[in-house]
Design a protein that fits this description.
Belongs to the cytochrome c oxidase subunit 3 family. It catalyses: 4 Fe(II)-[cytochrome c] + O2 + 8 H(+)(in) = 4 Fe(III)-[cytochrome c] + 2 H2O + 4 H(+)(out). It is found in: Cell membrane. Helix 1 runs antiparallel to helix 5 and helix 4 packs antiparallel against helix 5. This protein has 6 helices and no strands. It has a single domain, classed as Up-down Bundle (Four Helix Bundle (Hemerythrin (Met), subunit A)). The relative contact order is 0.17. With about 190 residues, it is an all-alpha fold. The mean pLDDT is about 90.
């Protein structure tokens, strides 16, 4: 039931992001010169590295799910014995990578702000910050969920199917956020 409810909720989130994409394309179609001028400021290489970090965090999250499905909350070997890592170690690594993603995006915002690209400056600033900002809020929500799941793993007297299901559901959300970013990245940084 939890998985199905999560899928339905993610479908509503997909519609939300669909609305944001529609806003972006509508504003872009009315101001093509503004878009050309401001997209030239974007640091595509930094955004590409940040995208790779987020995609890899989805991989580490999935390794955490595999450990949760084995009902293995924590590692059973040395810190560098990755094959013996449990859900907690994989989710901590995922959390770190997600936090790096948000930090790099914040840095990009600061650079753009110094260039005069702000929410109130023009339609491009509004569209850029609203679409990427809502995504950043969703990533932050995922980071909080990972902390919650990691904490539950430490507090559980016995790591069972209930805890594993929670980990799986959080991974659904994380993969969703990852896919949305890939589409958003392609639209904002590459679509001409």
């Amino acid at each position: 039931m939890v998985s199905i409810g999560t899928m339905v909720w993610l479908a509503s989130e997909l519609m939300f992001f669909g609305g944001l994409f529609a806003m972006y394309f509508t504003l872009r179609s009315t101001s093509p010169e503004l878009w050309a001028e401001n997209t030239a400021i974007l640091n595509v290489n930094l955004a590409l590295v940040n995208t790779i970090i987020l995609v890899l965090s989805s991989v580490t999250a999935q390794f955490g799910v595999f450990a949760a499905e084995r009902l293995q909350p924590r590692r059973t070997g040395g810190i560098f014995a990755f094959k013996r890592w449990g859900m907690v170690e994989w989710f901590i690594l995922t959390f770190i990578m997600g936090a790096v993603f948000v930090a790099v995006q914040s840095y990009e915002y600061a650079v753009l702000f110094s260039e005069g690209v702000t929410v109130g400056a023009h339609a491009y600033g509004s569209a850029f910050y609203i679409t990427t900002g809502f995504h950043a809020i969703h990533v932050t929500g995922g980071l909080i969920a990972f902390l919650f799941i990691i904490g539950r793993a430490f507090l559980a007297k016995r790591f069972g199917h209930h805890e594993a299901t929670s980990a799986i559901v959080v991974s659904y959300y994380w993969h969703f956020v990852d896919v949305v970013w890939i589409v958003l990245f392609a639209i904002v940084y590459f679509l001409k």
